Structures are given as C-alpha cells and as structure tokens.
Amino acid sequence: MQEKYIPLHRLPIGCTGRVKELRAKDNTRRRMLDLGLISDTIVEALCQSPSGDPIAYQIRGAVIALRSEEAANIMVEKF
Amino acid sequence: MGDNLDLVIALAGNPNTGKSTIFNRLTGLKQHTGNWPGKTVMNARGYFKHNNKSFLLVDLPGTYSLLANSPEEEVARDFLCFGNPLVTVVVVDATCLERNLNLVLQILEITKKVVVCVNLLDEAKRKRVKVDLNKLSCRLGVPVVGTTARVGEGLAELKEVISNVIDQKLCCNPEPISYATPIEKALDYLEPVVAKITREQISSRWVSLRLLENSKKIESVLNSNFEVNLLESSDLKKARSEVQNIFNEQKLTVEEVKDSIVASLIKTAEQIGQEVLELERQDYNQFDRKLDSILMSKVFGIPVMLALLGVVFWLTIQGANYPSELLARMFFWLEGQLTALFMASGLPDWLRGIVIEGIYRTLTWVISVMLPPMAIFFPLFTLLEDSGYLPRIAFNLDNFFKKACAHGKQALTMCMGFGCNAAGIIACRIIESPRERLIAIITNNFVPCNGRFPTLISLAMIFLVANLENPWQSFGAALVILTVIVLSVIITLVASKLLSQTILRGLPSSFTLELPPYRRPQVGRVIIRSIFDRTLFVLARAVLIAAPAGALIWLLANFTVNEVSILNYCAGFFDPFARLFGLDGHILIAFILGLPANEIVLPILIMSYLATGSIQEFDSLGALSDLFIQNGWTWLTAVCMMLFVLNHFPCGTTLFTIFKETQSYKWTAISFLVPTLMGLLLCFLVAQSVSLLSFLF
To answer: What is the pLDDT of residues B245-261, one digit of tens each?
Structure first.
C-alpha cells in the first residue's frame, strides 16, 4: 500500500502541507518541535537552494531552511 | 555580578529581534549587532540609570527556546534560573510574534517578573501587521511595551516600566500554561514536593516539568546552584512513582510527555498570536519572498551572490585608489619635513633612521594602504550583514558544506572571517557539535580577512592588471579579488573535507537555519559604527604592531656583521628554501615578522627591500612596482605571494583566540599548521609547474 503521507523534502515547491508525524529523535526532535512542527502545523515549501538542498520552508510565520536529512523525518499530508 | 547596589535586569529574546540594538540603546555600549542567528554568545553587560536607580543589564544569548540544550540556551536558562534577575525583559519581533511567543511562555514559567518588549514596530507597520499590545499584556499577564529600537522609540517607556515593576507599581501575574490532563495531574503531585525541597528558590512548576521530561541536567544544576539534592529526597521518589503510575495508566511514554509539553506551548503561542495580531494583508511577506526568489534562486542565486561581492570589492578598490594616493603623498611630504627637522636639530643619524625610515615609514604605509579600503569595505560589509543577506549566502552554499561533512552554519562563520578571522572564530560558538566547530575554527583562516585584502589588492594592481586603463584596472582588480575569494571558499571546503576524513572524522549533524526577514539597514549608523568600532579598532591594532616592527626591521637592515646586514643574512639564509615556493627570503621574513598582524606584511617587505635597494622615495603603486621588479619579481612571484597571503598561519590575535576557544595547544598548533602547509603546497605546485612549463616550451 502506498503511504498516505510524504516526507517534507518531497513536498513540491510552492505547495503546502500539514505535519502529521515527526520521526526525528532526541535533540533534533526537540529542535523541530521548538520550530513549531507539532501535529497539524501547516508548512509551505518556499524555495530550493541553487543545488537543490536545503529547502526553505515557511513555518508559523518564520522562514527556516532544512537539509533533506532533517526534512525526511517530517511526514506531511499534501493539500 | 557587579555592584550590590545595581539592580540586575536580564535581556532575553530570539535572535534577530533587535535585542542587541535595545541593549546598546539602553546602555550606550557598542555591541556589534548582526542580522543573523546567534550573534550574542557571551553575556554582555552594561549599565543604565533611570529615576536615580542604577541598573545592570545582562544581555543573554539569543535563543528560540530554553529546552533544546544548546550551549547558548543553557547559558540563558541558567542565568534566568540562578542569576536572580529582578526583571527579565523579553524582546520579541512584532513581525514574527507567534514564533517569538514560545520563548516568552517558557521564560514566564521560570520567572514571573517579565516585561515583554515588542520591537520592530516600524517593520511591522511596513508589512501592515498590527499587534494589539494591550490585549497581549492582558493575555500574558505581564506589562508589554512597544518599541522601534533603532530610532529609540519606546525606550523611555521601557525603562519606566522596568522601574515600576521593581517598585511593584506594576504587577506581573502570568497565568500558567495549561497542559494535557495527565500532565497537570502529575504536576499536582510533584509541585508541592519540589517547592519544599528547593525552598522555593526557583519556580517549582518549571522544575517539575523538567522532572517529567526525565531531564538529568536539572538534577545536576540544582545540586550545583542550591546544593539541593533531588535524588536523595524520599518524598520526591514517592511523588515520582505516583506520576509514573498516572502515565502508565494512560500508556504515556516519556517521549510523548515531552512532545505534549512542547505542543501545549506552541498551541498557546498560536492562540495568543491569533488573538492579538491583525494582518491587514495576508501576503505581508510578499516582498521578502520576491527578493528570496531572486537571491536564493536556482539559476541566479550564486551568480547574484558573486556579483554582489564583486560590486563590494570594486567599490572598495575604486574608492580607495585616490585617497590612498593622497595619503601617501601627504605622508611623503611630511617625511621630508621631519627629516629636515632632524637634520637641523643635530640628533644622531641612527635615531633618524629608526624613527623616520623604520617607524614612520612603516606606520604611514599601514595607514595609507589600509585605511581607505577598510573605511569603504567595512561599512559595505556591515550593510550586507545587517540587511539579512549572510544567512542567504549560507543557504546557497549549504550543500557544498554538507558534502564537505561540515556544519551548515560554517558558511556564516566563514563570512565573518572576511571581516576578521578572530571574530570568525568566536562566531564558531554558534556551531554546537564540537567536531564541526573545530573544523570551522581550523579552516576559518582560509578566507582572507580585512587585513589581507589591501595586500591582495595592491599585488593584483601592480602585477596582474597593471596594463589596463582605469576604470578597467579597478574592475580587473575586483575580478582578481573575486577569484581569490572563490578560491578561498574552495580551499575551505577541500580542507574541511580532508579534516573530516582524517583527524576529525564524522557525519554532519542536524541543524536548522533561520532566514530572518530582510531589514532596511540603518545606513548612517552602520557607517559611523563600522568606521569607529571596526575600522579604527583594526587600524589601531595594526599601528601598535607596525611601530615596533618598523623599528626592528630598520635595525636588522642596518646592523651589519662582516659587512652584511642581519636582514640580508637572514634573507639569504631563507632564500633557497623560499625560491622553491616561488617566493624569496625577504618575503618569507616579512610573513614571519608579520605574525602579530597580517596588515604589516607588505609594509615590512617594502622596508626590507628599501633598506637594501637603491630607491629611497616612492609615493605610488608605480614606484612600488619598480621596487619589486628591481628585486627580481615577476607575475609568478606575485601569484605565489597572493597564494601565501591566502594560506598561511593565522595572525597572533587569531591564534590567541583559537587557543582561548579550544583550550588546547594541540588544536591551536593544528590551526597553525594546516593553512601553512596548504600554502606551501599550493605555492610549490604553482611555482614548480610554471618553471617546468617554461623549461619545456
């Protein structure tokens, strides 16, 4: 069965998604939560860096760049 | 902790909220601010007076949270918990309120005596974001003051409010955040017990929450600060097992409890944000996004970055040209007058030699070669920094750093290195992982600092673009410098990669990079500050070192043993070695004597040639060119010297800073060796392959 949610770094640029699951552990998890990436938070993929990674996201009014390794642990539901 | 009579006020807030500007405005101290995360890494302190009371303001590191255990967060948290500030001022960004409230709420759990300062109201107005300050104050239960710190608006009120809170004319009565039911239940068990053990020296609710998270740190910090041993208390053990029962019943793991605590904070912040914010336009960040889509675009991102840097260098070179020449001429004229004065006064000739030919000439060269480019470069660089562009550079370059197994924030510390490597090395504290911090420290010296730019520019002007007519000459020089910068970034990446595969093995750690809103830089203040704080500071340091170095070089050049001056003897000694690398003995000596400050390498070299050469007067780059050519320079010598300027041991100040930051002789020695060996290797390769090629063809 295909997974219902996609990892955040797969979210196409310009699209918006809703955070469903945070798979990061320990301190990284803490940092992600502190950014406001709790369940149901709305995230928009803004733009890619020239080499494609990292990607800048709009999260609760702030613009945060995440490398694909970190974004891969954030599962979102695409609108 | 200052005088006992001082009232201690803590200043907290997210990075990029204008916290340092508020600190400067209140205390009059000049702490350099920058629009990128993590600028304040130590607790800066300053004083201010209001209503005949003296306040000691402590600037805490900018953090988004107090829970993630980064070194800055620990510093901030420990000061709030154990530094006993009478009032804590939390600065928040009006344009990004919701995100900032997370920290406010966390601080309110530690201390009730909080004043919230909603800063950057002008930016908010520009973006048509309205913050209902009264409602925010009601909702948080603490006084709220709105400010636009960069023009000083609202600061008088802020002081008044702080003073009133201390006098208890204003009360702080924040409502505790409500957590999920099982957590609240658990807190009911823990709080009274904790309050008893800690003798109410610290918020028991906050300590209890940390205990629910199973934080090991809280036990050790309480132990070291209050001599309270949580582990020994049997009451607490009992309460904690009750708590465990509650959680077991609900099938809650510690991880879930932690998540739930953070989620409550975030949701409360979201709710308050929705209540007090009024957005006139949903697309209030449209302008920033548009700018981002150019500056960080896939196609234009890197070209625009190079173009911007190119323009900065071109302006520096073009603008510095004329004043440099003017200064040199003026100093030269003055030299003639001074010499005449010496002659007339009948003082001994050797004294005139030391003072005029040694000290005076070296000093005036440092000033006329360094001052104009610095006075232009520093303000331009500060404008880029203040506008919020540096994090975008980090964003554009991050993938390269990732491939080099380095930390993404290394791009930021590298950018700081362009100003001054010692500052760049201090900035490395923003990198949490020790391995990646060491890589950033060791490789910081690969980017040329401001003390090395004038040397690079002069060499480029004399040997590489000498045949071009102005304005093409300065254009060409800017292009050369830009190439040098790109080369220095490539070397940084290669060296980082090599380090992370040899002595500092490991994988890149996770990080998040905030791209703060663009700010209109305060042009006037930037110019004044960067000239007074940075330019004059760096120049004064160079002058202090140049004077004795000038005297020393004169003595070495004029003391003879067997009719050969000591300088020539030394230069002759180093010469065969230096020739291998396309340099000569005098150049090597200049670098060695220039250890205290890179700025004086070129003046020392000139003095050293002059002491043995026949030209006694020069006032332009043309004369300098003749001097170098007389001493056997070719374009290859210039290229090798430029490479060695880029890659050699850090200056004395930087080495000292590295030692202070790493507390290790070993890493200081490695920071000395890595760039030196890299420089020797590059010079050797270039010099030998060119001589091989010229032999073959």
So the answer is: 989 998 888 888 999 99
Q: What per-residue confidence (pLDDT) applies to B1?
A: 41
Ranges for all domains in chain B classified under CATH 1.10.287.1770: 181-279
Across the range B498-507, mean pLDDT stands at: 88
Complex ipTM above 0.85? Answer: yes
Q: Chain B: give the shortest CA distance to residue A56, in Å.
A: 8
DSSP for residue B391: H
Residue in chain B nearest A42 by alpha carbon: B270
- Cα(B378)–Cα(B506) distance, integer angstroms: 36
Closest-CA residue to B124 (of B102, B149, B158): B149
Q: Which parts of chain A sit beneath pLDDT 70?
A: 1-3
Chain A residue numbers with beta carbons less than 8 Å from the beta carbon of B97 are 61
Give the residue from A38, A77, A79 showing the smallest Cα distance to A59: A38
CB contact under 8 Å between A50 and B259, yes or no, is no
Give pLDDT, residue B696.
Answer: 85
B7-166 fold: Rossmann fold (3.40.50)
Cβ-Cβ contacts under 8 Å, A56 against chain B: 292, 296, 395, 515
CA distance A17 to chain B (A): 18
Q: Which of A36, A51, A70 shows the shortest C-beta gap to B399?
A: A51
Q: Which CATH class is domain A6-78?
A: mainly beta
CB proximity A44 to B under 8 Å? no
Whether A72 contacts chain B with CB within 8 A: no
Domain with CATH 3.40.50.300 in chain B: 7-166
pLDDT of B609 strictly over 50: yes
Is B266 close to A61, i.e. CB distance below 8 A?
A: no
Q: pLDDT grade, residue B492 (50/70/90)?
A: very high
Which pLDDT does position B614 carry in this prediction?
A: 43
B464-475 confidence digits (pLDDT tens): 887 777 778 888
C-alpha distance from A8 to closest chain B C-alpha (Å):
14
pLDDT tens-digit profile of B475-486?
Answer: 888 899 899 999
* Long-range interactions of B164-169: CB distance < 8 A, separation 24+: B165/B87, B165/B113, B165/B115, B166/B7, B166/B53, B166/B86, B166/B87
Of B596 and A11, the one with more pLDDT = A11
In A, which residues are within 8 Å of B65 by CB distance?
Answer: 30, 34
Class of domain B181-279: mainly alpha
Contact indicator for B25, B19 with CB cutoff of 8 Å: no
Q: Are strands A55-59 and B7-13 parallel, antiparallel or unpaired?
A: unpaired
Alpha-carbon distance A66 to nearest alpha carbon in chain B (angstroms): 6
- Alpha-carbon distance B422 to B432, whole Å? 18
